[in-house]
Amino acid sequence: MAQPVMRQALAEASHVVTRLGGKTIHRGVSLRVEQGQITALIGGSGTGKSVLLRVLCGLLVPVSGHAQLFGKDIVAAVRSGEINQLRTRFGMLFQDGALFSNLTVEQNVAAPLLEHTRLPRDTCFDLARLKLSMVGLPADAGDKLPDELSGGMRKRAALARALALDPELLFLDEPTSGLDPVSARAFDQLLRTLCDNLGLTALLITHDLDTLLSIADKIIVLANGKVLGAGDLASIRQLDDPWLQAYFASRGDILAPPPRETR
Amino acid sequence: MIVPSLQVTLAGDTMVIAVAGDWRLQQAGQWPVWPESASRRPSSAVLDGSQLASLDPSGAWWLLDLLGRHGLPVNRLALRGFSPATSAILTLVGQHAVRGAPKRGRERAWVLALGRFSHRLAGHAGDSLRMIGHISEEMLGMLRHPGRFRLKETFAQFDAVFVQAIALVSLMMFLLGVVFTYLLGRQAMQYGASIYVVDGTTLATCRELSPVLVAILVAGRSGSAITAQLGTMKFDEELDALRVLGLSPWTVLIIPRLLALIVAMPLLVFIGDLAGIAGSMLIANLQLAIPPSMFIDRIDTAIDPGTVITGLAKAPLFGIFIGLIACHTGLKVERNARSIGLSTTATVVESIVAVILLNAIIAVSLSWLNL
Fold first, then answer.
1. pTM of the complete model beyond 0.80
2. Complex ipTM over 0.90
3. CB spacing of A134 vs B96 below 8 angstroms
4. CB contact, 8 Å: B1 with chain A?
5. d(Cα A123, Cα B85) in Å, to the nearest integer?
6. What is the domain count for chain A?
């Protein structure tokens, strides 16, 4: 068996405990998001996947434990203000796109460029149009307001905005939810292509089994406030957890249950 | 971080463009420009990336844009010394780069704006008429089947529109009475006509100030609340849910709110009258030495009951307009975040304009009829 290559962790959590509204959500979660990989975070509803993402973005301070982004401690960065510098190095795709509703799509994608770089206005808009084209949006979508777009197009526009500053890391919160199967698969392929071509790392929260099967390099399972397991699809399927087995059983046509050793 | 650089050399007939350093968005201020000494349009060109430390899509865009603007065939560049990762980025950006804004047709903006405005206005008028039709139809139905009438909902709305506004209306009109009387008093004292302050303030308060200001307050409070509530219910399909359950949004939601407004307005105006007069009495006592008993006597002799009745009669009319505007705007809310804010603002502004316009029409008509 080949030795696993030790990749650099762009985002890392160790023994993170979070509490929201008196309820403990994470009881010591430790995980690594390794460079160059698409990592999928799965778990039942209410297991705190989105909350963990907010911790990694610096939007929520954990009760205890450490979270690191690009090797820097997140809580310290929030206190010192360095977090805003770190935030230009990753992009976030929110579940409903979270596009600014009173700006056009083009203005949405150009906004981070206008804010964080000193490039001339025309160049910012040219770069915005480049990103819109890269995510597969037609040229006339740029002038539309977010509420004039379909769900699939809104997600692509949000992806373009997340890519505006050419980040090294992408966080995606259920990118294929609410999309029809064809659009969902197209989005998965887009993500894979961009990650491969641009050398991006991605952490995505998903319920979509097809996404796991097609583009995830590594899967992290969250259950009962802890990480149940982390690894590739084959190793995750070996885990003995009722929720996980039921989850994979729903696609019994594609996934034959792993052979059990009887000797 | 290695500063990005670009060098152009000629090897025979071929132009060699060597890029070096970090070509990323962080280096945006330092991206190289075309060296002046380089000649344009060579017969062939090679892009050499052996010294390139890193490349991201923004840097690649700048590079390709630079080459394109100086006559190089960007789509048919020979690449040399690029790693698989950087050549993938270069190819991807080359496929997608778009320079310049897409062509937009020239428009006569003001003509279009005028046309759109008129069209919208006509649409509004049509929708309002339709809404009034629906409401009238439902109310007639309620007269025939009194069981359909939602007593509890109407009382709940009445509580919100009237009872919860009493304190605010009293305070507002009291303070207004104080200020108005003070100003009038200052003038009247100069001519020794202090007692006429009573006439002036009572007339103004009961006939004009109380109805109009209470209407503005109710429009801001209750009108915007109705619009926001109906708008949100339309937005998340609650109105459709009502219809699908066989209920009518007019009967269940809108008519109770309208009736509450119509009944509450005259009551609030009356309370406003009392509060305004109380404020006037206070200042008249303090500033003009007119004791309350003399104030009341003067009202008895000089003020005609018609004054108060006119004010009270205007109130339900204002209430109807506020209610119809609020419901109409609420039902037109669209499915996006800014629409609610725009609609509630529109309700308040339109209601205030309508009230003041109506008030002016009534004032002119009454004076023409010598009332």
1. no
2. no
3. yes
4. no
5. 24
6. 1
